[in-house]
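Hey,
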Amino acid sequence: MQNEPTIILSGTDPDLPRKLPSGIRRYSGLREIARGGNGVLSAAFDPVTGRTVAIKMLHSDHRNIPNEKRRLLREARVTAQLQHPNTVPVYEIGNDLVHGIYFTMKLISGINLFEILKQIARGDEQIAKRYPQVRRISALSDACLALAYAHARGVIHRDVKPENIWLGNFGEVYLLDWGTAKVWGSMDDQTVTRYDASKLQKEEDEQQLLTLTGGGQRPGTPLYMSPEQIQGTRTIDERSDIFNAGVCMYELLAIREPFRGANIDQTFRNIISGEVPPPSEKSPERKIPKAADEIVMRAIQKKPQQRFQTMREMVDAIEAVLPQLDQG
């Protein structure tokens, strides 16, 4: 969790720096704040705008790997082009002589839904009171609006999960991590220049599966994959994100995952063919309304044609059920 930066008078000075270094040297006070499988997220001060920003770059041992550079650049461009209130604004994309490909974006503060779920599951009454059902599901609805916006522009997220939904300290909600997004149409053609598009997509699908089954993320991540993601279906569309969001909604209501097995293989079998009870039956003590059950169970249908057909349709259903959720 990041603290909100304080506005400093010197940061509003009308004069710009006389000499501005290029690349990451432009920024001062660089400090690492998070580290993932391939990337590093740092915070730094931008003397031109007078604000603290987040900078994402590759690990030093990944900077010269073409596929990794291409994926980071794609993530930067996809995120930059999805200009929505529930996505993080991108400020700059660059290629530093030392650090390689990087991009800067808004430094967000707050907590993600996975941390909230974890603390509620541990019996933290204060967190449960601060983030009741209605607030958790409202945050998911906001993230789904970002997905609806992305879908309208030919982008499928493919990794919707509680860790990627952040609640800010002042009511903001952000859907993060577009690094494994599938891009359709001309955007894909512009991004994939000297590489065969179908070959690159196959590489990305394989990398997505590898990442989700032990490439550095938490063990529970495969729980949110759709049947078509697991089976390697080549025609994954927005209904896969709808399934992912439905699994998130189940967990946000029941504080339990619907498909968890003893291992990844069993979890995948549960997702592909296993039947699960509605959230209200899984966690009767949570007082989950039947209308919420209906949304979840429709979203996690095995066959895409039996789910909501658009994310906007799912959002409308969620918004209608919000007044029925526990306010306390």
